[in-house]
Predict the 3D structure of the following.
Amino acid sequence: MQFKHLVKTFVLAAAGLVLSGCSTFCESAKYEGDMLGPKKFFRPRDNMSFFFYDQQGGGFELKVAVRDLNLNLEGERPAYFFLIDPDGKIVDRKFVKDDGITKNEFRYKDGMSDIWLDLRYRAYHRTFSPNGLPPGKARSPKLDAPEKIKPAVVTLKAPANGKKGVYRLGVSSCYDHFISVTPSRKLLEGVHPGQCGLYIHKDQFANGAYLYLPAATKALCISTTEEVAPFGAVVETSLGKLTAGKGYFNFLKIDKAPANKVIKVAVKPSAAGTMLHLQGAPMLLCGSEEAAKAFANYEDPVVTRLKKVVGKTAEEKTFLQHACRFSLCFGFKPYFDAPMEAKRLNPGFRSNWWDFGDGWFKSYPETLAPEVKADVVNLMEKWASFRYMMDMSTCVNQWGKINEQLAYMYKYTKSPIVKESLVFNVRRMCTPDATGRANPDKDAFLSGQETDSGMASCGVMSEGFGHDNEYNLETDMHLSRVYNILPIPEIIKYQDTYYKLKTHLTVPRSDFVPLRPFDQTVSPTDINFRTRFYTHKSAAIHEKIGYGDLWIPNNNKNHKSIWPAMETKPFVRVIGKRYAFVNTGKYYAIIYLGWNYPMWQTWGVTKTTGNSVDITEIREVGYGGWQTAAAKPGAISAIWVPNCGPVLLGNNHNAMYSNLLWAKVDEKVPANVVCINNDMTLESDAPQYRTFDEKTRTLTIKGTIPRTVLNAVRTVKLMDNKLVYTITLTATKDTKLKELWETIPLFAENRTLKFDGKEFKFPAFKVTGTHVHHKNMSGDSGLSPFTAKNVSLTSKNGKGMSVDFRTAQTITLTQVLKYRKEAAAMSGISVKLPTEFKKGKPYTFTYTINIK
C-alpha cells in the first residue's frame, strides 16, 4: 500500500501548495552560472540549501529539476522546495510528486541513504565479502549519468517587487534525488549541504569553490567520505592538501586556520559516492569569491530581530533562546563529523539523529508581543519545511518524536505550513509499506526483500530493521500526543493494527488478568532488534483501538477484550506472516517467523591511522546486551500456561536466554568490547529459513551455525499438551567445536525448579544496568553443571512445564537477572551437546516440553 492520497490531502489544497508541473522556461536553457545550472547535480541527505544574492532586485525564477535514482529508498519519495526572501519570509513553495517507481532494483541497491548505516554496510562487505563487494551487487550507471533520467521540473519565483539581498532555496528531499537548480538570470550563488556532507558529483568542484572563514575561526577540519574502494578523493586548498588513505574517511586538520578570509576548495572524487565534510566553519561553498564575501556572516533576518528582543520573564528569555537556535537549522551549522581534537576521536556520525532542535518545544509563553510571535511562527514554519521529507524510517521512534514536536508547534502557531508538514509525515509514517525495504541485502524471509522500514503491514514500526517492544510503545506515546492535538485518523488505524500484534506478543505475568500492564505483563525480547526491554508503558488512544481496554492502567471495569493467552477456545493465528500464535487450550505459544538481525549492523568500531579512518571491528550491541546482534530469535519465544502463567520467556540479553543453539569455536570475530565473547557463535547470527505449517502446528527452522560447518534443521511440533523438538546437525566436513549448547529460557519468578524431581532454589536475581554492560552479569551463573533427565518448572499449584530428555544430560543454569527492577526475573537451562562431527553423518537430538 502506498500513500498517493497524501499529495491530494485537503491540507495541501487549503494551503495552495502547487504540485509539480511544467517549467516556465526550457529544461535546456543555457545558463552560465558559477556553480549552478541544468547540468550541475546535487544529492541531498534529507535537506540542503541553495543561496542566491540578488544585486539588483525585481524578481527572478528558479527552475528546479528532480531526477529520481530509485536506488536506495523505496516507496514514494516526493520532494519539497521553498524560497525564502531577504526578510526571511517564505515567498513560494513547490511539492514534486514521486516518479511512480516505488521499488529498487536489487542489483544496484548497494547502500543506504542513512550515512552511518551506509558506511558501516559498505565497510562490513569490504571486510567479509568476496572482492570486498556486497554479493550480487553492481554500481548503478545512473550515478555517473543522472542527466539520462527524466526529470520532474518546477519553477519557484521571487516576486517582481522583490528586494535586493540574500534569497535561500530550502530543499527537503532524499538521497535518491539528483537536483539541479537554474536561475533565470545571473545571481551570486552558494550551496550548503544541510545537516550532512556535500555530495560531489564528478568534476563539479574540480576547479574549486570558495569558502568564507569567519572571524571566530580557529581550527578547521576538512574531510571526505567515499563509498567504494580504492579510495582516491583529493581536496586541495591554500591551507593544505588532503589525499585519501586506506580508509573510507580521510581528513585534513588545520590547527591554526586563518580568520575572516575566503579560501578556495577544489575537490576531485575518484568515483561516485564521494562527500565533502567540514568542521570549524559554516559549510557554505560559493561559486565565486565575490559570492563568498556577499554571504559572509549571514544570519536569518528573523533570528537577528529575535536576538534583539528582551524577554520580560525567565520563561520568555529561555523560549527565545531556543527559538533563535533554529538558525542553526537553516544552512549555517557545521556538521560535526570530523575529529578536531589532537586525540583524533572517532568521527561523530549520528545517522539521521541530527541536531535540529528536536524535542525542546512543548510549552510556550502566552505573553509575547504579536510581532515577536509572528517571527517565532516564521522560524517554526521553516523548521517544519526542512523536516518535510525527513527519512527516519529505520528509527521510527525518532520520527514519532519529531512529529510530536511538530504537533506542539502547530498547537502554538496554528500555521497551515506546520500542519501540512505534520499531516504529511504522520500519514506517511502510519501507512503500511510506505517506505518499503531499506536493507540492501536479501534475507531468508519470504521474498527476502520485504518491508523493513517505516510501518509494516503487521503494525510494526521499524527499529533497526525489526521490532522493538520498548521503542514501538514510545512511538505510540509520541503519536498519541500528536492525536490529542490534531486527530489524524491514520494514527488510530496504525495503533489498532499494532495493538492486535502487540497484545498477542504479550502475556500476563501471572495467571490473573493484569490491572497494570506496565509491571503485570511480559513479552519475549529475543526478537527485539534494539533493546532488551518490554516494560509496557502504553500510551495509546486506548478507547479507540482493539484490545485497548486491556492496556488501560488500573482498569477495574469488566474488560470486553480477552488476552489471547487467556482465551479458552484453541486457535492458530499468523500475523503479517512474521509471527505465529498457538493456543491449544493447554498452553499459549509465541513464535517468530521473520528475518534475523542483519549482521552488517554489528560493524561499527572505527580505527584511525594517520589521517584515515576505517571501520574494523564489531561494536557493542547497546542497552546492556551481550554478543554481536541485538536480536537473538529462538525457536519458541514464549510459553504461557493457564493457572500458572509464563514458563518459557525468551530474552536477548545473551545467548543462554533464548531457545537456540550456541557454540564456542576457534575462529574469533574482530571485537574488543567487554560484552562480546568473540569465540561465541549463535544459531540466530545467520539467515534462517523459518516455516510454520498451521494445520499440523509444525515449526521448521533451517540454517548454518556461523563460523562452523554445521547445518542445523530444527522442527518443533506444537501438540495439544506438549512441544516435541527434533534438532538434526550435519557437518559438511569433519569438525570439532570447543563447546555446543541448546538453551531453553526460563521464567524465573515465583516458580519451583526441579532437576529429576529434586528441588533447586533459584539464586537471588541481580538487576542489570539498562545501558551498562556488567562483567559479572553476562549470564554465566558460575554454578556447577547438573546431570538430569527431567527439568520441571512449576507454580505453587504444580502447573507449569517439564523438559524431558531421552537420557540424562549435562545441564547448566543461566544466571538469574532482571533488566530493570520492574521486570520479571529471567534464567534458562543450557544442555551440553557433542562437539565432534563427521562429514555427512547426521546427529539428532530430541526433547519434549510437556505441559503440566
